[in-house]
Design goal:
With 464 residues, the chain is α/β, with parallel strands linked by helices. The chain contains 13 helices and 17 strands. A hairpin with a 1-residue loop joins strand 16 and strand 17.
Amino acid sequence: MIDFKGKNILLVEDEVLIAMSCERELRSLGYDVTTCFSAEEAISLALDDNRQIDIILMDIDLGRQIDGTQAVMEITKYRDIPVLFLSSHTEKDIVEKTEKITSYGYVVKQSGLTVLDASIKMAFKLHKAHSELKESRERYRVLVENISSLVCETDSQGRYTYLSPAYEKVTGWRRDELMGKYVIEHLHPDELTRWKEKFFRQHNPNETIRDIWRFRIKNGQWRWMDSSVTFIEKKNGEIYCVVITNDITDKIVEKERLERIIEENKAYFSEMKSRVNSTASIIRVFADFMASCFKEEDSRKIFLNIEKRIEFCLSLYERFYIYPMPEGVTLREFVTNIVELVYRIYNTPQQILVYSDELNNIFLEIKWILPVGFIMNELLSNAFIHAYGNSSGEIYISAKKFEDVLLISVKDNGCGGVYSEMNKIGMGLSLVNKIVEEIHGEFTIVSNGGSEALLQLRISKDEE
């Protein structure tokens, strides 16, 4: 909303009596008025930086020197001030002459104060709208000409009608070298059919399409361009396009490089897997051979258990190390895999497993998979076999994390003394304690009705 009260009007009128009457009427409406009687004086006042002038009421006939239209042309060279012509002329050529100049209206003298006041207010509104439009266009121009994206406009035939400065920076082509040329002249031959299918079919105003193209820059190189094309309707009904494009060649090249690395790593991991399988097979054959050499049952069990542990480690390696996840794995997924392996390798009785919710929210880094997996293998296999004898029961698996400390619990409500069975064949607890010692953890067994094994680890990421 414009506040018209107190606006400063420069009244230019060479007839003194008319000027005095008009000034009095304008002041009665709340305007501040400065009156002058010649074009030269009007120019001087309007160009005075120390004087605030909001609008000019300009007479056309101002004597034999400079007339009102000439004065306005001189003033508007330097100042953006709305001008309302106030004249007794009604001839068509006079009125048209004012329309060719920066004009916000034409009021015939003796039209009355009401008409004059309405015309002044309309001139203020038009000037405000023009200023806002000019500022908007300037902001758009500055934005378009300074962003790194390539911005262009094309007509309905796909010819350039506007190009932002970024085009020359990115492609090397000057504006005058591309203006009026067809976009397809610089597209890769393999892209032409797809471009024509997308561009030349019927499109609605404000519709946007997006695709990636190869564009030939001035030095002959082909660059990958990611383009967003928006269709706009001009006043004549013709559909034009505004195209915003980004050079993504470096991203494409980097993506291809990473894909090659991934493929190379897959080949490397596949080779590693083959070598690990081969080595494990040799060790299993050796374990089988050693077991067959002993007649004592306990000695044979030792080698058979070694073979099962080798198979467990190999299976764990295949599941988590071949294509490792950078962020690690949730304890729930990790423990679920351990349970599946224990059931398959040791053929233990099926138990009712109860997992705590915390297992879903705690991640285990890849470096902990094998040592923690080995420990969990020992704990779970013994709990499955010895906790409930030949029957089944509940095994509770839970975890808590306190900053860089992880606590894992395996608990049952069975007969107790589960983990004392682990040492009867010469390994079990000794093996667990050895691994815990190597990873600087803590291991505790609690017997209270059932049995509970507690494993505590420091899992700080900074720890090597």
